[in-house]
Amino acid sequence: MEIAFCRIDDRLIHGQVATVWSKVTGCNRIMCCSDDVAKDELRKKLLLQVVPPGLKGYVVPVEKAVEAYKNPKYDSFKTLFLFTNPRDVVRAVKGGIPFKSVNLGGKCFKDGDTMISQAVAVNGDDVAAIKELVDMGIEVEMRKLANDPKVNAMDALKAKGLI
């Protein structure tokens, strides 16, 4: 399986992903990787309904995404991986998916979070996971839109005094 792109966006598939990111990455598959979302039949059904025409979509637990990545049966897949949080990306990498770069595209604000960009709010667990990804040699960059300039996530965390 070829990695087309890896993005963290708690909305998973939405307008920008469906119309821009899927085209820019040249993917033929979109894999939403989340244990919680995979258990939520309604959300899963809604996500699969918005997969762009001509692409195939999946909503799977993180462990199943790792298994699929390793399965030679899926070698023809050029996959856009979507995650809801950085901790799940760490799990996927430790499981064997060799992401070189991760796009931190959107995380909604929740009580106790800190906004590090217009579209990204993080909590302590997110900060630790981002740091862990960077320590593994993985680029973590922030862009809301594909044509936006890349912003180093560590620089954004430092600017907010989070690391």
List its traits:
7-stranded mixed β-sheet, alpha/beta, two-stranded antiparallel sheet, globular, 163 residues, 9 strands, single chain, 7 helices
Order of helices and strands: EHEHHEHEHEEEHEEH
Radius of gyration: 15 Å
Number of helices: 7
Helix content range of the residues, please?
25-40%
* Global morphology: globular
Average pLDDT figure: 96
Major pleated sheet: 7 strands, mixed
Read across the widest sheet, the strand sequence of neighbours is: 3-2-4-1-5-8-9
**Uncertain regions spanning at least 5 consecutive residues:** none
Question: Could you explain how this protein is built, in words?
Answer:
- A hairpin with an 8-residue loop joins strand 8 and strand 9.
- The protein contains 7 helices and 9 strands.
- It is an alpha/beta fold and 163 residues long.
- Helices cover 39% and strands 25% of the residues.
- The chain has a 7-stranded mixed beta sheet, with helices on both faces.
- It has helices spanning 15-25, 35-39, 41-49, 62-70, 86-95, 124-135, 153-159; strands at residues 2-9, 29-33, 56-60, 78-83, 101-106, 114-115, 121-122, 139-142, 151-152.
List the helices and strands and how they pair.
Layout: E1 2-9, H1 15-25, E2 29-33, H2 35-39, H3 41-49, E3 56-60, H4 62-70, E4 78-83, H5 86-95, E5 101-106, E6 114-115, E7 121-122, H6 124-135, E8 139-142, E9 151-152, H7 153-159
Parallel strand pairs: 1-4, 1-5, 2-3, 2-4, 5-8
Antiparallel strand pairs: 6-7, 8-9
Helix pairs in contact: 4-5, 5-6
